[in-house]
Amino acid sequence: MPQSLYLVASHPDAPEARPLIDALSADLDTRFGSDGRASFQDWQPHDPKHVFLLVCNDDEAVGCGAVRPISDSIGEVKRMYAKYPGQGIGRAVLAGLEAAAWQAGYAELWLETRTSNTEACSFYQKRGYRRIPNYGRYVGREEAACFGRYLGPVPAATSQPELQSTLGNF
């Protein structure tokens, strides 16, 4: 796959996003018995604290991910998916989400994955995420592995980032 990846700010219900979210949901349901579709029930499309990105290669959407607020300074990464594993798509999605989250005013990102999802646990740890105590609805759930990463002090004036950018090597 050529590496002409670029980010596009989008929405979970966008036609380009639906096949990716459906594939992710099917994979999660097969592997873990839950499809995660409830992630977007409280989605606020016009709220700059809600970020949804597509990673595209030429004209094909090949990855997606979202950030939603936990608090004013902490965002939660949701629905990370790469259509083609091992091609740098996941790294591009996460890097884009981190940049967009920081510009939206988040100082930290948290996320949850399953302890049995060793690929995801390793992926996040390699990118600077550290295990944190289970938070929110994951408290007391032994199958949940929660991770967090400090992004740094947020800009004085936050604004929506320009996300239609070409990505380098991730």
Automatic annotation (TrEMBL):
Residues covered by the N-acetyltransferase domain: 8-152
Q: Which UniProt keywords apply?
A: Acyltransferase, Transferase
Kindly list the residue ranges recorded as spanning the membrane.
none
Q: What Pfam families does the record tag this protein with?
A: Acetyltransf_1 (PF00583)
Q: Please identify the protein, giving its name as recorded.
A: GNAT family N-acetyltransferase
Q: Which organism is it from?
A: Hymenobacter koreensis
